[in-house]
Amino acid sequence: MATRPSSEAHIAEAGSAAGAAGAGGTGSAGSRPKTAEKASWRWKAGAVLVAVLTIGTVWLVTGVVGTVYGAADNGDGPRLTCPSGLLPDTPSQRWNGQIGVVHEYQVGEGQDCWADVVYPTTRRLLLNALVPDTGTFSLRKLAAVESSMLGVVVGCGVLLLRRWGRPGMCALAVIGFAAVAPAMSRFFMSPFSESAGLVGSVALLIGAAGLLANPVRAYAERFTSVALVLFGAAYGGLAKQANLPLIGVGVAVLLCTRLVEPRPFRPRRVAYWARLVLPRLVSLGMCAALLVPAAQWYKAGETWSRELNFNELTTGDFVLGAVALEVQRNGGSLADLGLPESFGPLVGMEEWPDQDRKVQPDWQHYFKFDIEETRARTAEYIARNPEIGYRLLTTGIAATQGVRNNYLAAYEFGGGPDKGKIRITMDTPYVAVGAVNAAGNGAVGFLLLSGLTVLGPVRYANQRFRRRIGPEPGRGHTPTTGLLLLAAVSAALALTTCAVAVWGDGYYELTKHVWLGAFFAAVAVGLAGVAGAGPVRRRLSRIRRNQWNERNDRPAGERPGRQDAPDRVTA
């Protein structure tokens, strides 16, 4: 029986073939073959094409070119636009709420901006760079620039994930399609900061995927991935206070990243210790570059909230609008939270999905005591009764089914739903994932996301410690393991985003506050599907090959030649 040639023979044969190709393919020894150059140019052309398609899709969906499709102001728009000197180009120069999307603004002063303290958001940094000194300004320009940033990030993903081949491109398609879906991209044409969080989230996920897909010695791809992680965590995590979990994930990714390839243990050489210590110091420096601005950003947000008494409003939404409601459903009373029974009529007034009732109670009239003490007492009660915390979290997960936020008008004055049928169709995957998340009042979504959070690390631990295998020195993680780890990161972000949304403002406008959590949930499910498709396809191919071998009296497991491949034979 013939035996397989040794690995040394394979290496020698491959080396001689590569040398011959290098010498004969380009006319000089040591240069790359023409086929490799063509492949490289194909990947670069594909990256440019994907970037252009992403940008064009967002421009067409949001109305940068064509009919405007965005998100109308719910009253929070002045946080972004007013400090930049933008006044709505309407007869009253006021924010018209639910009437329609206002995308044209006059540049000037004269509008009360609520507070002397500016609301901290990274989207204003981009807005201030685009707003002229006088004249008019259109949100189309801001949407065009921000969507171009998204397209560049997705285009970079083509080059970073090419080592994974087809699974990598499918994973990139999942992330890209989830970002350009109208339910997400409509916020590019809005006075909100959500779009900055979306761009940052996409950059963070693609950067983390690039670190998983490429080996340590692929320094260009790895450093590009690190740059995307830094940009995504900073731009997305500092877009609003609720996005701070992105900072935590970015720090965790940087701490787990090996920047240079390790060398053999030689303690007497200075180069060994420099190669060991300096990359770790660089990683710690990058983490500090994220954490220090995040702390300052959070402090500025707290100052802004105190000046406008927003702490009273959000505490009322959380304690009375959410926690007290779940306590009563659990058979408890307001006395369990240390609140008087006279607060009873206010319990659940801002409950989702009753979004038609927009009259917010005057919480300041009731909360004449310490807000921090109220939240601390409520947190202590939730710690003693974890079933209340579970109900709050599952309600937040269930709210992802309302990711389209239909209570916010999507068209400008004179527009209508008849112009957006294709946009509604593109949201079908979100509707499907939202329905799964909402099943069992969020219980199914909680189990699904929790399972995905655990599945990736378990898969990695099984390969790394039990089977004693892991990423080879010259290769990154396998597509299945890498995509499951990335799905775990996305699922964890979905859970934390929903938890932060409920903790911050209760059930008030919950579908808008868990909007980014819906994106992470959809991406996690899609990535898990792509990761599972590879093993399933290989298993089916093996079964098909064994059936063909049985019919042709071949040994089980033998691979047929090209002339008698089983794909021409029906099983």
UniProtKB/TrEMBL annotation:
KW Transmembrane helix (keyword) present: yes
Stretch list, region Disordered: 1-36, 547-571
Domain of life: Bacteria
Transmembrane stretches, start-end: 47-71, 142-161, 168-189, 195-213, 281-298, 443-461, 482-503, 515-536
Lipid metabolism in keyword set: no
Protein name, entry field: Uncharacterized protein
Organism: Yinghuangia soli
Key words, A-Z: Membrane, Transmembrane, Transmembrane helix
Low complexity biased stretches: 1-20
